[in-house]
Write a sequence for this structure.
């Protein structure tokens, strides 16, 4: 089955360019385009895309609010991939906290854009390790873990704690497998368990939960280093 995509950007040329790049892919279908946050919500309701490419800065309702509303009301599995012309900033981080699955810069090479859509559609997080550390390190301070958060963390096994910590530090499944001396399929199983037990959407939310819960804090060493 093809990945159904909606492209949201207030600049028609940018929007059309992304739609054209994705539209020639055999496994990707552009089902909608929108130029505002309000139009994005309407398009999401009507077309129920698998992935939404969302411009973060738009006049009127911006991409942050549109992302929050779409994910809050969606009764289908939809991922939001943030489009930005800037390096990660607080605005992008707020979008990730709202449930976005990652972000790409608007000058991304054309060949990588389709791969980004496929990665997000498959439940992956589109955050390079270096970006993860810089983003989280800048905008997340380690809070005191309250009882509610502690209760959620206690749902995880010791191994799931280890896997979650590794994900938060930017490790891939293959890197986690080597570090913990387990198979990649086992890592994938642990990731699924973490998502289910904590009620999270994807790996991006695992990263944010790990830091905001205090399980990991900015400045900790990377896995295997």
């Amino acid at each position: 089955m093809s990945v159904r995509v909606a492209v949201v950007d207030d600049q028609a040329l940018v929007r059309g360019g992304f739609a054209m790049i994705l539209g020639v892919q055999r496994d990707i279908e552009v089902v909608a385009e929108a130029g505002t946050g309000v139009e994005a919500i309407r398009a999401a309701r009507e077309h129920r895309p698998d992935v939404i490419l969302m411009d973060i800065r738009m006049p009127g309702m911006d991409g942050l609010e549109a992302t929050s509303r779409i994910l809050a009301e969606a009764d289908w599995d939809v991922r939001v991939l943030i489009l930005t012309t800037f390096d990660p900033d607080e605005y992008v981080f707020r979008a990730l906290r709202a449930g976005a699955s990652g972000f790409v810069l608007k000058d991304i090479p054309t060949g990588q854009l389709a791969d980004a859509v496929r990665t997000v559609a498959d439940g992956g997080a589109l955050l390079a390790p270096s970006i993860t550390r810089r983003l989280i390190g800048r905008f997340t301070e380690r809070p005191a873990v309250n009882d509610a958060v502690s209760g959620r963390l206690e749902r995880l096994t010791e191994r799931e704690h280890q896997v979650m910590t590794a994900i938060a530090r930017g490790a891939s499944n293959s890197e986690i497998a080597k570090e913990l001396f387990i198979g990649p399929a086992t890592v994938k199983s642990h990731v699924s368990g973490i998502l289910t037990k904590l009620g999270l959407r994807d790996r991006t939310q695992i990263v944010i939960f790990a830091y905001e819960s205090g399980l990991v804090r900015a400045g900790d060493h990377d896995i295997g280093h």
Notes: The longest strand covers residues 28-34.
